[in-house]
Amino acid sequence: ISNATLRKNIQVDVVFSTTLFDFMGQAMISGYNSKKQPRKFRIVIWKYLSAREILSSMIHEMIHVKQWTLGETGYHLESWMGVEVPEDLEYYDHPWERDAYGSERCIFSQYVTKNKLWKVFPKLRNPDRKNIVPKKFEIKWKIPKEQRGKGYIPV
Predict the structure, then answer these.
(1) Start-end of H helices in the chain
(2) What gap in Å lies between CA 112 and CA 13, rounded to an integer?
(3) Please, which pLDDT band fits residue 75 given cuts at 50, 70 and 90?
(4) Which of 22, 107, 123, 140 lies most in the core, judged by the most C-beta atoms within 10 Å?
(5) d(CA 63, CA 35)
(6) 155 or 47: whose pLDDT is higher?
(7) Distances from the Cα of 47 to the Cαs of 13, 23, 25, 26, 140, in angstroms?
(8) Is residue 79 pLDDT above 80, yes or no?
(9) What are phi and psi of 110, to 5 degrees?
(10) Angle between helices 95-115 and 51-69 (to 10 degrees)
(11) What is the model's pLDDT at position 143?
(12) What does the pLDDT average to over 126-138?
């Protein structure tokens, strides 16, 4: 959120949970200001994620906080940019999820680059280095097949 005054008036509590099975993270409104605008939020992150997944999930959920704060999505996820959204849409087809997933990778890459996180997390690479040929990789899941939900992403 680029507005400094708005940022000062938002509270986000982050909790790590062992009971969040369907998704890696979840954001929710936990309080409103005197104008009945959402300004307090709670983000729940699944406790068993890697550091990379935690960062990625936090970015994704903070995009939802931005959406609520700026009024892009309805408080009860019934509308997007003032237009009613059908209730029967699949999870990934909701416009707020498309926005969050679409922005998440870009913000993640910018954050990794700005903070040189490849020095801390060996699996991350410096996107500024030239002539790097990515190694072939096999998708590995940390979560047993029967517990995988739509919100899980490969490690």
Answers:
(1) 4-8, 51-69, 95-115
(2) 23
(3) confident
(4) 107
(5) 22
(6) 47
(7) 15, 11, 9, 12, 18
(8) yes
(9) -65, -45
(10) 130
(11) 54
(12) 57
- Neighbouring CB atoms inside 10 A of 68's CB total 21
Copy the structure tokens of residue 83.
């237009």
* pTM metric for this prediction: 0.76
Tokens standing for residue 112: 């990794």
Q: What is the pLDDT of residues 15-36, one digit of tens each?
A: 999 887 677 899 999 999 999 9
Read off φ and ψ for residue 145, nearest 5 degrees: -50, -40
Q: Report which residue type is found at 137.
A: F
Spatial neighbors of 101 by CB under 8 A, at least 6 apart, are: 60, 92
Residues 6+ away with beta carbon under 8 Å from 115: none
Contact partners, residue 70, CB within 8 Å, separation at least 6: 1
